[in-house]
Write a structure and sequence with these properties.
The protein is of the alpha/beta class and about 140 residues long. Helix content is about 55%, strand content about 10%. The chain is built from six helices and five strands, in the order βααβααβααββ. The two termini are about 15 Å apart.
Length: about 140
Amino acid sequence: MPVLETDFLKALLDPKDRLHGPSEKALLRLKRKEWNLASSALLELDLLLKHAHIPPEERSAIFETLTGEIPGDRIVGVTHHSLSAASQLQARHKDASNFYFDSVHLALSLEVDGQIVSSDRFFDRVAGVRRIPLESL
């Protein structure tokens, strides 16, 4: 089952985002239990919201809303194994900027089936991963 990453969440929350429509379609696939969400995407989203100076109570409301929309059994959790794999990916892709969270998303997708749903074309360069373009939904 493919794994969704942070661009899905960002677009889902922003109706003006060019990926909002595709993200709504991806949400349906999550609800039908066809796809998964990387838990690391939730953490990355929270850091992005915090960096944008969104107050804690608003961030909490956003995550409560997501809790009602995204089935908990569709979230692939970060483990010591996935963090080890992410570190290995970081070592192999030193040229990639801001690769920390992407490496964790990738490690989680590799644990599941090697498919990641993303608009990030960098993932096309990672061996063993098949990117499903979010924008194509």
